[in-house]
Write a structure and sequence with these properties.
This protein is an alpha/beta fold and 287 residues long. 52% of the residues lie in helices and 19% in strands. Strands 3-2-1-4-5-7-6 form a 7-stranded mixed β-sheet, sandwiched between helices. The longest helix is centred in the N-terminal third of the chain and has 22 residues. The radius of gyration is 18 Å and the shape is globular.
Amino acid sequence: MNQEKENSHERLEAVDTAQEYYNSHDAHTFYSTIWGGEDLHIGTFRKPEDTIYDASRRSVDEIAALSYNILNMSECNLLDIGSGIGGTARHLVNRYGCRVTGLNLSEVENSRHRRKNKEQGFDDRIDVHDGAFENLPFQDESFDVVWSEDAILHSGDRKRVLEEAYRVLKKGGEMVFSDPLQTQGCFSEFLQPILDRLHLNSLATSKFYEATALELGMEIVHHRSKPQQLLNHYGRILEETIAREDELRANGVSEDYLEHMKKGLENWVIGAKYGHLDWVWFCFRKV
């Protein structure tokens, strides 16, 4: 019972930490300025001159290509967990005809998400909910796809996230997601500064996600490892941050936040460069 209480406390602490961080002025301004204005996930770069926005949008399309349901259903009912400010949701509606429900911790991001949906004419196709993906406020077997990009790492109970995704998926539904991971041979001295920055105890591994999926009753349809793109992305974000420091300061981002962010980005670059971190795309199907 004590262990159960301790695990519950860790889950709640992770939720509170992520919510406080993404609601902060510093974080919201940084991501909306540097990450391309629509997306808050990792980009897929094909040439040096690619913008962060274009690379981020390319990730959505290439990950979507893993999903039979997104590509083939006339109106795929999709749940986006960790939906940020909604760039992915709007793209999935516009390009693939999905009906999207977004769920996200940050009320600040959700407010911007709803505003952009209304401005761009998507508010009748996207519903936005405040909440945590460890406790999804939806009925069993409600969705054709549960989608997430680079958000599950923030959870204090990733197994619970997969259990909840499984619960709300229809039979034949797919969990399609990407996440930054630690490799099996990761050196702790490379990983610890990243964990400290994120207030986490660990990152997941591919083995963990796949074993959990199989245990729940899902089959592994796709597994794509993209470590070079992790390096490309964080290297570009670091370059952009340094180049636009004065703009960020002028928009009220604190000096302390900027220094910690640059150091954090450097740690991601080092971890990716030396094989301690990976970025993996998954598609699991509920059978």
